[in-house]
Amino acid sequence: MGKAADNEQIKQKATWLNNVSVSLFVGGFAIPYISLFQKKIETGISDFAAAGTAVLVWAAAAVFRWRAIAAVKKIQD
Fold first, then answer.
1. Burial group, residue 61, by CB count within 10 angstroms (0-12, 13-18, 19+)
2. pLDDT tens digit string along 23-72?
3. Read out DSSP for 9-64?
């Protein structure tokens, strides 16, 4: 493949990784904290368990984000 095609594949991979990162952040971090602060959803899960889960999901989102950044750095001029 040519350089342009390689760059497009790299950009698509980085976009996918970034989208996974954002969805993990929103789904696993922001939503539990919003529900904890508003106390509208009674899940039976302790605040500590919800906070711990949110931190673990945030870490997974950060890993996907860092992989997306590493993929973008492979783009050639």
1. buried
2. 998 888 777 777 777 665 566 667 777 778 888 888 999 999 999 999 99
3. HHHHHHHHHHHHHHHHHIIIIIHHHHHHHH-----S--HHHHHHHHHHHHHHHHHH
